[in-house]
Amino acid sequence: MAEDLKFYTKVSISRATKTTDLPDATFADVAKQLAGANVYDEASVRERIAELERQRGVILEKPSQMGMIDQTPKSATTLALAAVSMGERKTNILATTSLLHMRHRLLMVYTYRVFETAKDPTILQDFTKEWVRSSLAANP
Q1: Domain ranges across the chain
Q2: What is the chain written as a DSSP string?
Q3: Tens-place pLDDT, residues 39-51
Q4: Is residue 13 packed enough to be buried (19+ CB in 10 Å), middle (13-18) or exposed (0-12)?
Q5: Cα dihedral 62→68→70→74 (10° resolution)
Q6: DSSP secondary structure string for all residues of 79-100
Q7: What is the pLDDT along the chain (140 residues), one digit of tens a residue?
Q8: Which residue from 2, 108, 120, 121 has the fewest beta carbons nearer than 10 Å?
């Protein structure tokens, strides 16, 4: 369960696109669609997370999109909050989803952190931004 894994990352690539080059223009369109689906406003993201922290007694049963938290010409990252439950055990999970255009492929990186304190969103966002940027720099 999530309490056992408080912070973890998963990297994946679609089988369908594993051997197909993704042109820069196509990635730009994908990132634009992702950006259009979420309002990029870090202040409002922080406010929403603080509001949910105050309401911690309420477990969200489906993901709540928190918006776009980072974007570069080769990446786009969103933040969401979801409730995870197994039997009697329930917890809130913060999740970032990053799309990376790396070596003409589309990589998806999912990073999760249990939402226990007001610092957790910042820790997750900082880690994700650093991981994405370091990975892109190492794979020009």
Answers
A1: 2-138
A2: -GGG-SEEEEEEE-GGGTTS---HHHHHHHHHHHHHHS---HHHHHHHHHHHHHTTTSPPSS-EEEEEEEEETTEEEEEEEEEEEETTEEEEEEEEEEEEEETTEEEEEEEEEE--STTHHHHHHHHHHHHHHHHHHH--
A3: 434 565 556 656 6
A4: middle
A5: 100
A6: EEEEEEEETTEEEEEEEEEEEE
A7: 444 668 778 888 877 777 888 888 888 888 877 766 644 345 655 566 566 656 654 445 566 778 889 999 999 998 988 876 655 777 888 999 899 998 888 888 989 999 888 899 999 999 999 999 999 999 88
A8: 108
